[in-house]
Amino acid sequence: MIDPRIYETFREIGRDLYAQNMVSSHGGNLSIRLGDRVVIKRRGAMLGALKPHDLVETRLDKNDSGVALASTELLVHRAVYLNTPALAICHCHPRTAIAFSLSRDEIVPVDNEASYLLKKIPVITEEFASGTPQMAHKVSEALKNYKIIMLRGHGSFATGQTLDEAFFWSSTLEEACQIMLNVKLINEPFIEYRGMSDSYNKF
Amino acid sequence: MAVIKFFANLRRLAGRKEMQLPAENLRQVLERLESELPALGAYLHGNAGGRLIITLNGHPLDPAAGLDIPLAETDQVAIFPPIAGG
Amino acid sequence: MMSGWAQNILDIDLTSRTVKTYPLDMEMARQFVGGRGLGARLLWDLVDPQVDPLSAENVLIFTNGPLTATGYQTSNRFSVTTKSPLTGTILDANSGGFWGTQFRRTGHIALIVRGRAESPVWIEILQDQVAIHDAAHLWGMRVLELTRALGQDKHRRNVLTIGPAGESLSRIAAIMNDGERALARGGPGAVMGAKNLKAIVVEGKERPEIVDRERFKFMLYEARKLLAASPLTSQALPEFGTAVMLNIVNNIGALPTRNNQQTQFEHIEAICGETLAENHLVRNTACWACPIACTRISRTDKIEGEGPEFESTWAFGAQCGVSDLDAIIEANYVCNDLGLDTISAGVTIACAMELSEKGYLDSDLRFGRADLLAPTLEQMAYRHGLGAELSDGSLRFATQYGHPELSMSVKGLEMPAYDARGMQGQGLLFATSNRGGCHMRGNMLGLEVLGLPKLIDRFQVQGKSSYVILHQNSSAAIDSLVLCKFTNMGVSEEYFARVLSAVTGIPYATGELIQVGERVWNLERLYNLRAGITHQQDTLPPRLLNEPVASGPSQGWVSHLEPMLKEYYRTRGWDERGVPKPQKLQSLGLAHLTD
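ok -> C-alpha cells follow
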C-alpha cells in the first residue's frame, strides 16, 4: 500500500514534466527509494496523468510480484540505487538538451542558474533500449559523480534526495539548453560574467 | 485573530515579537504583514524569498502546499528566517 | 609524489616513553581518507574491542585529514578516536579551533598515544622534535589556566588539554583545545587522564602539498560563493549562532524539557538565541579558515567566554528546567574550564533532578535550580559529594538509584536537544548511532523541520531509514575529510569529492566519497559488535517508546522505532540482528578484516 502522499508527489511532478514538454505521452520515468524498496511507474503508464494504480512497489535487490508490472527501466533504477546514494530518480526527454547531446560530450551551461547548480552535464552513449545491463551500469557509474547526466539522443537521468530535487535538476538542464539555443540564434559575442568559468568543463 | 510570532532577525525587522492579525488564510497574513510592517515586508520579498520556515500551531508547513491554508481564530503562526544549527 | 596527506604517523608509548614515526599506509589512506575514518581503521588494529577503556591497553588516536590546513573553508578540524569509557563503543569526537591545523603542520597525519605514564606528563610536538615532559606542576590546573601556562598562541603554538574532570577520570570528561573548543562526547578526557597525560602542544611549519592547484582554487572560489549565497551560513549562523535553534525546536514541540518529561519549555524566551544575542553577546568569532563565524563570545557579570552553543544552552536550560540565562552561560564556561561535555553534564544533572523530585534521591537538586548548576559541575569534576556519583554519566547514576529508565541516553551517551517523539527520523538516528545517542552523526533536522532540501513529514515512519542512512554515511565522510558540517549547509558532497581529488590527485566520485562514509560506518559497527554492543542496544529510553507526549504539537506521539529499525537494518544490508552481511562487507572492502 503506497502512501497517498507519495502518490501525490509522483502525480504532480509527472504532470509538470508533461506540461513542460519534458516527456511525450508515455515516455520518461520517476522512481523513489523507500528503505530497501523501490516505487516506480507502471509499464505503459502516462506520467502526465498518473493514477494510484500506476505506481508499483518492488524490492531493490531482486524480483518479487511487483516486478511484473514495473517499467522496463527498473533495471537502470535499481542499479542507480545500489551504486549511488540517490534516493529519487527523474528520467525524462528534455528536447533541447537531447538536441545538444548529439553534438558534444558534455553540456556546459552559460546561464547563471545552471552554472551555479550544475556546472557541467556529461553525455554518455548507449544505443540499446532501456533495460539492458550495459546501459544500467553505464548510467549508474556516471551518476556516481554527477547528479544529472545525458544519455545521447535519449534523455536525462537525474538523482536527488527527493523527487523534487531530481526534477529540479532536470528542469534546470532543459532551461539551460533553451537559453543556449537562444544564444546561438542571437549569435553575438559572449560577455563572460562568471568568475573562473573556464574551469566548469573540468568539474 | 490569528497570533503571528516572529523569530531571529524577523523580530528586529518587525519591531516586535508577536502580533495579532485578522486573516482568513496564510496568504492574507503575509500580505497584511507586508503592508503593515514595510521593513519586514521588504525582507520577506527580498532575499528570504521562499526560504522562510513557517509553522502553524507548531507544525512546519510545506512551501509546496501553497499559502491558501485557512486559519482559525486560535491559530498560531510562527515565522522563522532561514536558520539552522546543531 | 605524495600530496594532501601529511605523511607520518607519530606513535608514542607512554609506558616505555618511546617515540616512533612511520609512514602512512597509502592504501589505508585511500580507503578511509583521514579523521574519523583513519582513526577507526587504526583503532581496529590497535585496540581489542574487549579492552577496559581506562586501562593502559586503550589507545588515543588523534587524526587530521588530507584537507587539513590547506586553507579550504573550515579545514581546521581534527578528530580523536578511542574506545569510550562511557559507552564501551568505538568513539570518535572532533573539534575545531586552531589546534588541528597546527597538528597537521607538524607533518603528522596521526598521533597514537599508547600505554600509561607512571606519573603525569605532557607532550610537545615541534617541527623536528617530540618531547615528553614531566607535568607534576601542571596536574590539577584548570583548562584556561593551563592553556595559558603552556604558551597558547593562536596561530603559532596550540594547546590541547584535559581539566580536572579528565584527571579524576570522569566518564563524561572532554578533551579541550585552544582553551574553549572541545572533543566533548563519550569521555575521551578520561582516557587521556587514565594515561596520566595532561596536555599535547603542537608547533609546526609544514604546508600541505596540493596536486592540482588550479582545480583547488576553483573549488575554493565556488565554496566561497555557495557559503555566501546560503542564508544559513551567511546570515543566521554568524548573527545568532547555533542557539537560534532553540525557538524553532521548541515551537514544533520537540525540545526535551525537564528530562524529556515535556517537549516544550514555557520559559523559552528567557534562554533563546534571540535573548542571548540581545543581552549577552560580545561578538562572534571564527575557527581557522572559516567564513561562517558561528562561535559566540558571551558575557555575564561574572565571566566572558566562548559559547554557549544551542546544545549547551538547552542542556542546562530547558532540560534542567532552568530559565536563568546568566547561570546557563556560567555553567557552560565552567564546563569548558573543568573539561566536561556540556550535553552529558546537563542531561545527567537533569536526571538527578527528576530522581530527587520523585523521592528516589535525597538531594537539593530540583528542576529550575539554576544556582546549583555551577556548584554541581565543580563537584562532578573533582568527585566531591554527589558529584562523585554524577561524574560517570546519567545511566550509571540512575542505575545506582534503581531507575535506569530515567537516564535519557542511548548506549549510555546522553541524547541531545531533540525529542524522538517529535521527530521520528531523529529517534532512529539516535538509536543507531555508533557512539550512542548523538545528533552529529547525521541530523534529520533539515528534512524533518527546516525543509532542507525539502520538508518531509516528521511523524512519518515508512521510508525514513533511507534518509537517515544517507545522512549517517555523508556525515561519516565529512568527519573523515575532516571538515565542519556547517559547510555542508551551503556546499554539497559533490564539491567535497572534487576538492579531495584536487588536493590528493586521486579521483573520488561523489558516490565514492559517501561510500567512504558507509565503509567507516560499517567498520565502527563491527567494532561495536565485537565489544559486545548488540542490536538490543539500538533502542531508546522507555519514556520515548511508551509515554505519549502530554501536550503541544507532538501531543500523543511516541517513537515508533521498531518498524523503522527493521527497515534500517535491511536497507543497510545487515541481517535482522543488525550484523553487516558478508556481501555488504565485501562491497566495502571490509571482508578481509573479519576473516
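Residues 8-202 of chain C form a domain with the Aldehyde Ferredoxin Oxidoreductase;  A, domain 1 fold (CATH 3.60.9.10).
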